[in-house]
Amino acid sequence: MHVAVADGAYPGIATERSSSESSTSSATPTPSRVPSPSPFRQLSSSSPQADGEPTSPLLGTLASYTTFRDRSRRWWNLSPNSRRRRKREGRIWRTLKKGVRRVVRHPLFPQQPITIIFALLLLTVFAISLTLLLMYILNPDKEPLPWQAYCSIPPTTSLSPSYRAALPYPYINPIPDTPPPSFPPHDLDALPPAGIFVGVFSMDSALERRMLIRTTWASHPRSRNGAGTGDGGLGTSRTIVRFVLGQPRKGWERRIQTEMELYRDIVILPSPENMNAGKSHAYFSWAAENSWVPPLHFSTSTTIRNFSYSNQSTSAPHPAPHDPRFAWEEHTSGHPKPWVRPDYVVKVDDDAFVMLAELESRMRLELYATGQSLFGFIDTPASASHVALDTPEVQFSARENLVPKPNRTALQDPLVYWGYLVKERFMAGELYGLSWSLVDWVSQDPIVKGLTKGAEDKQTARWMALHPQAAQIRWASERCWIYDHPRSGTVYSHGFLFPSHVTRVKQAVLSYMEQVSHNHSDTSVGQKALTSSQTPTPSSWAYSSVSTFGAQYQQPLQDMTLLETVEALVEGSAMSKLRDGVSTDTDYAWRHREGRIKRYENKRVGGTVVVHFIKKHMWFLETALAFLEADDYSESECEALPVEADKEKLNVGSSAVWTDTMVLSPANSSR
């Protein structure tokens, strides 16, 4: 199709076209097909080039046009700041490309496959080294702690660190002028037992660990009754163990519901499962409304103190299989007594092994103590008897101007924060307990409700500092008998501890202190030197015959039986000191080991409270064997007994039976 255009309409174009046609008509044949149309382009009416020019659609190539990108910018990139930002971003991008181009074109940049692989290896090594360096710098635990000093010099005050000068590293207590009372006191059982609600933090998938706890320290008589003949479970007759879970996941709901119906010992919090996102506060808030323990089942020679919560009660629930035998006896009688509020609410991690009789006995003393001295009965914190050293860094006396005067009505209820005091700041999260008044306050205080996120053990310490009577809260710390499993290799780990070995440790530490004091003309100067941050403590105070800090545990000898390997985990035992090529007589070490009666020095309590950081089920079973299943008398001790003693029955008693026979009687099994 040919279109006729008048030559006079566009003279310039017609002249140019006629000249070009005349110059190429002889050389170029006329095309037989019309060329393909050019891509569609929209005419732009805003372009200055379009002003005064024709807008015929046949001359689209002559008019100004815009691309799709230009058209899309018009409705949202209208401000000059957008253009400036695009220019700046484009400049940065061009600079980066230039920099990368220079690096790639550098002569030292790897070009061959071998050099590229070698460079990647170097970068990997550098990244790993940098990560390890940062971990080392940020890790505050670089040296093993002097646990022997902790066991030899107990705390002499329970004032909050906010109201006294904090101890310098390694946090050794000042040496008292007079030795503190020994534990346990002779009249411990004259005090009424404390009511303790123990909440073990677990999660939906941790069924195996819950079963291990149910069948070991939550129910075993040696955990509940104590060593030797025990007390028949009287001390822990008001101690209840429950598992605390967040909302289970969809795939675990039916399994958890079935487990709850079977064991009746699981608490489901109204919050998602978490560790440091408010689970502890949700637990204490739940406990303030729903925690109950059995009442007193017997009378004692000591007058019972009435607290503000003493009259609160509820009907007795169905007991769990591992609840105290007295609760089961009342349940089977058909007329159980109402349950009452607990004196303590305790939070425990499921990687901790707890000796319930040891825990209850220590909390019982704190329940009936007043003031801020160790197991003291003093009216005010200002009159508490504690050591006052002259050096400013070890000043340990109460700052009377910072301690508000106590309110007599408020002091009727005990205010106790119990656990392992870490770095003079907070109680370690593996186990800590709050007295009932603190639990009730934590659940209601609006400021505390806004401080629930973060490391839960540190947050709990912050709550205590916000209490209106923070100066009267007893920070009861136990740093000797709470430690990590010997296989964990942490700064808090050493062998399993028993009172007999701690007695030997005390003798060694105190003799060293006495020697240092003799080397100084002034005895107090020598004592100050031992507790000063500028004087390094002897490395022997951190020595363990079982574990070495930072090194993986290796059993002393390879050809050892299972029970011998468990005995080798006991701190100070002859089995733990065997070494290849030095001493390998395992038979002699086994026969001459200490029995439980000797290890507990013929006392019911006074030993390990918590073994923490039990990350493997095998470690848990080892701990259970060491503390629950050891013989009361070893072979050599049996041989030394009088002839008339019935040696066959020495290691078989009520403490060696896992569950009370009354619980398994036919009358109870039908309920």
What's the arrangement of secondary structure elements?
Blueprint: H1 11-24, E1 42-43, E2 65-66, H2 68-73, H3 80-104, H4 113-138, H5 147-152, E3 196-201, H6 207-215, H7 221-224, E4 239-247, H8 253-263, E5 266-272, H9 279-290, E6 313-314, H10 325-333, E7 339-340, E8 344-349, E9 353-354, H11 356-367, E10 416-422, E11 426-435, H12 436-444, H13 446-449, H14 456-466, E12 474-477, E13 482-484, H15 499-518, H16 523-531, H17 562-567, H18 586-591, H19 596-599, E14 610-612, H20 617-628, H21 635-640, H22 666-669
Parallel strand pairs: 3-4, 3-8, 4-5, 10-12, 13-14
Antiparallel strand pairs: 1-2, 6-7, 8-11, 9-14, 10-11
| Percent range for β-strand residues | 5-15%
**How many helices does DSSP assign?**
22
* Helix residue percentage: 25-40%
Distance from first to last alpha carbon: 105 Å
Summarize the structure.
This protein has 671 residues and is an alpha/beta fold. The protein has helices at residues 11-24, 68-73, 80-104, 113-138, 147-152, 207-215, 221-224, 253-263, 279-290, 325-333, 356-367, 436-444, 446-449, 456-466, 499-518, 523-531, 562-567, 586-591, 596-599, 617-628, 635-640, 666-669; strands at residues 42-43, 65-66, 196-201, 239-247, 266-272, 313-314, 339-340, 344-349, 353-354, 416-422, 426-435, 474-477, 482-484, 610-612.
